[in-house]
Amino acid sequence: MPDYDVSEALDTDYYAVFAGIPAEDRAHWDRARAFIDEALPQMNEYWDRAEYPLHLAKRMGELNLLADGIEVPGLEPMSPLAAGLVNMEISRGDGSLGTIVAVQGGLALRSIAFHGSDEQKERWLGPLARGEELGSFALTEPDHGSDSVSLETTARRDGDHWVLNGEKKWIGNGASGGVTVVWARDEDGNVRGFLIEQDTEGYDAEVIEGKGSLRAIHQARIRLTDARIPAENVLPGSKTFKDTSAVLVATRLGVAWSALGHATACYEAAVNYANQRTQFGKPLARFQLVQDRLSQMLAELTSMQLHCIHLARLDAAGTMRPTQASMAKYHNTRKARFIATTARDLLGGNGILLENHVIRHMMDIESIHTYEGTESVQALLIGRDVTGVGAFA
């Protein structure tokens, strides 16, 4: 048994940011909370063993927690606010589970919903959203991360087929079975999306080992060697890298919500611990320095909530600009890092124990700080918007 129980959810909302949200949005959030209550006791062991709990990915599909706001026939629709709350709550439980939502719904499902044919949507949207099939999004390459627009994977038309060659890296679900949306450059130099089922000959993927972050979801390195797919597997709505970027922009706000979930878990663990841990004859909560740290963490957490709730409203109204999503991601992952390291320090030696969760969140935040565009890239996007001058090269 752990010496302390720091996992109790405190529903921190100092500015009443979430007061009065619609009942239908609250219902999605409550369903995510119930799932985390079910899943959280399992996650430390999966994280420690670097094993992927595929049954939990399927469970999220059964509970309609994977759609990330994409309309899927037969499933209850989810507003941008509801999608954000689900993302936040899942990440409050565990970052690997949050990344499943980001990959399955945010990237793979959204790519097909945005750019797929009617036939592709009918084939894949329902199974992906329900967790019956796994989906992945293969853009990043070993030599192209922040400059993914320079991707080198090629797609050559050969009669009624396309033939793909190249390599991809850091691809969530890329070696877990299912379908991969591979972004490649065609013979005219255009970047297009291709649906490749992972049992296709010439598609070889291996799980990346040795990760210190997001250990309970598998990322893959993929090698495409004359991988041959039918012509109808190209996403017809994908014509240029701008179409790829449309998917990334839509998921960037999801990363801000995910960071908020991680930060909430760390802050609430610190509050719980401060009330339970006794030193020098009194609870840590009675020390001035501890109260100061908790106040700093709460101030940053509240600012993160305000970013998310406001942009959810802009997103719902169709007025959110791409650089506003960049700002939310830039701000929230930075603040999540601060809150996590402060909580880790406040817990002392107990802060490095998986049973107290903070160290797992602290390490997982390092991944979300990087993926969907690094801090530096977000800063350059915002800077170009502010100054009118690009500084990427």
Quick gist of this model?
With 393 residues, this protein is of the alpha+beta class. The chain has helices spanning 23-49, 54-62, 80-93, 95-115, 118-129, 241-276, 288-317, 322-346, 358-370, 375-387, and strands at 135-138, 154-158, 161-172, 179-185, 191-197, 203-207, 219-230, 278-279, 282-283.
Can you put this structure into words, describing what you see?
With 393 residues, the protein is an alpha+beta fold. It has helices at 23-49, 54-62, 80-93, 95-115, 118-129, 241-276, 288-317, 322-346, 358-370, 375-387; strands at 135-138, 154-158, 161-172, 179-185, 191-197, 203-207, 219-230, 278-279, 282-283. The strands form three sheets. A four-stranded antiparallel sheet has the order 2-3-7-6, with helices on one face. It has a three-stranded mixed sheet with strand order 1-4-5. Strands 8-9 form a two-stranded antiparallel sheet.
Helices and strands, with pairings:
Blueprint: H1 23-49, H2 54-62, H3 80-93, H4 95-115, H5 118-129, E1 135-138, E2 154-158, E3 161-172, E4 179-185, E5 191-197, E6 203-207, E7 219-230, H6 241-276, E8 278-279, E9 282-283, H7 288-317, H8 322-346, H9 358-370, H10 375-387
Parallel strand pairs: 1-4
Antiparallel strand pairs: 2-3, 3-7, 4-5, 6-7, 8-9
